[in-house]
Amino acid sequence: MIRNYGVSLCLLLLLAAIAPARAQSPGGPATVSVQGEVQHPLMLGAADLAKMKRVEAAVKDRTGEAHTYSGVSLLDILAKAGATMGKDLRGENMTKYLLVKSGDGYGVVFSLAELDSTFSDKLVFLADQMDGKPLPPGKGPFRIIAPGEKKPARWIWEVRTITVAFAKE
Ligand SMILES: Nc1nc2c(c(=O)[nH]1)N[C@H]1C(S)=C(S)[C@@H](COP(=O)(O)O)O[C@H]1N2
Ligand SMILES: [Mo]
């Protein structure tokens, strides 16, 4: 009786430990929140991204291994959210930036101007596939890829939030 109770308790504790990890399979949250200084805040899931124009890039990772990532341009995501881009990206809007945060506390920034096609042809995108498959556990489901960059430090994985904000002194 006492022994059975002990086994059940162990099972319960095990399940409690596993549950949070399983809730966010495979690794990260299933949606990305686009928020802050935008007209239409978004919660983007796989189904939303699937409806948008896709881009892809062949890149080398930190170890020199080649991979093809595909996903949706940050520019298209920002346009959908109603961020000030194109002709509206001037004056005080020139101090706006994008803060991208992950569940592990890592974060990176991009200025709106560096992403805007009237300023630069630089491609930065939210990837949901690597080599034609969902991103590997721990690196997905969404990851930023900036193909033109010499090191992948801004290729933030497990993206949770994309926040547009004004830089302040
Ligand atoms: N969420 C998150 N993304 C991150 C990091 C991190 O610590 N957390 N490290 C960055 C750094 S410094 C590098 S070099 C690359 C490494 O990616 P890889 O492990 O796929 O080669 O991921 C980037 N993305
Ligand atoms: Mo790194």
Please explain how this structure is put together.
The protein has 169 residues and is α+β, with helices and mostly antiparallel strands. It has a single domain, classed as Sulfite Oxidase, Chain A, domain 2 (Alpha-Beta Complex), CATH 3.90.420.10. The protein contains 4 helices and 10 strands. The protein has helices at 2-23, 46-50, 74-81, 112-115, and strands at residues 31-36, 42-45, 55-60, 66-73, 96-102, 107-111, 125-130, 133-134, 143-145, 159-166. The strands form 2 sheets. It has a 5-stranded mixed β-sheet. Strands 3, 4, 7, 8 and 9 form a 5-stranded antiparallel β-sheet that branches. The longest helix has 22 residues, at 2-23. The structure holds ligand MTE and molybdenum atom (MO).
Could you provide a short overview of the structure?
The chain is an alpha+beta fold and 169 residues long.
